[in-house]
Each structure stands twice: as structure tokens, then as C-alpha cells.
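pls ignore typos typing on phone
copper (II) ion + seq
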Amino acid sequence: MRTTSLLCAAVASMVLALASQAVLAAEVEISNAWVKESIPGSENGAGYLTITNTGIESATVIGVSTESARASEVHQHILRDGMMRMRRVPELPIAPNETLVFQPGGYHLMLFGVKKPFRAGDQVEFTLKFSDGYQATFTAEVQPIR
Ligand SMILES: [Cu+2]
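k done
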């Protein structure tokens, strides 16, 4: 049956396409995403999240974007010469099964030129970019500063 084998071939190539996509795309779980309420007079902000690599290959974060700020970068706080400084992290690899917690004093999403001050309860949309081209979109809720 010619039609059947053609159909089989079509299905097989579809399955192959899906399988190779699954291998290529970073597999990550994002949870506990939040953004600090804006400090009056400051136009910069910070966002935090928890990322778990649920895949079998390393996943590397290479950037972040949001419509809510002029620019955004992945940052890390480091203690150098007794001073807290922060630096941009151009590549952040996450090993399989590893969970990375972004939190105040550590990794954070740095927001430059926040377009509208963040108020507690606001929702902020982010897209996290991975080295394999995968983009993870998530929503963070603005939390009051304690
Ligand atoms: Cu920063």
C-alpha cells in the first residue's frame, strides 16, 4: 500500500522533528518570580526568580528582556575589597538538575530605566534567553520592600 507507507514516512519525520526540537530546547522550570517595588526617585529595579534545569543538558542563560524597562541584564552581586559590587553576567550555565535561586545580594535581573514605577501587586513580563535560542517567558509579581 503506497499511501500507507507515505503516511508512515510523514508521521515518522514529524516525530523526528519533535524529538530533535526537544533535545535542542533548554528545559527549565521557572518559579517564585518577583520584582522589588520601586524605590521613590530611582529609575532602576531588580527582579528575582528560581530556575531549575529539568533537562539532561546544561542550559545557559545569556540574557533577559522586558517591556517594562529601557534595558535589562542578568547581574550578580560580588563582595570585593569589602565592597558589595555588581556585575553583568553574560553567560550563566545551569547544570542538569541544578536549581539557581536569584535573590537580593546574589543573582538578579537588573532593570535600567523602569518605564512606570513598580507598585506592589503589579505584574511584570520577562523573557529569559538561552544560548540554544530557547526563550522562556514568565510573569513576576511586584512585592513590597520590607
Ligand atoms: Cu544589578
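The domain at 26-143 is CATH 2.60.40.1890 (Immunoglobulin-like). The two ends are 71 Å apart (CA to CA). more later
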